[in-house]
Design brief:
2 domains
């Protein structure tokens, strides 16, 4: 008669997940993600220490600069 097709080997889903998590590419992607996030956060302007209560004049200067640069997105930075 005819030959039987080989049966598919079913892998344990936990083993598949583990293999994905310990793969070198996963680590590389996580490190690139952390690096890009760090660069983004370093690029955003930081509020002066103490905020409005610490040094009102420094806060006013910061707020003016942020408003000029970021416009309506300023609310996210406060």
């Amino acid at each position: 008669m005819g030959e039987r097709a080989p049966e598919m080997v079913r892998r344990d889903p936990w083993r598949l997940a583990w293999d994905l998590l310990v793969h070198d590419l996963t680590l590389a992607l996580l490190l690139v993600g952390v690096a890009l996030t760090s660069l983004l956060l370093a690029w955003l302007p930081q509020m002066p220490a103490g905020g409005p209560a610490g040094d009102p004049s420094a806060y006013a200067r910061w707020l003016s600069e942020v408003t000029r640069t970021w416009g309506r997105w300023r609310g996210l930075l406060e």
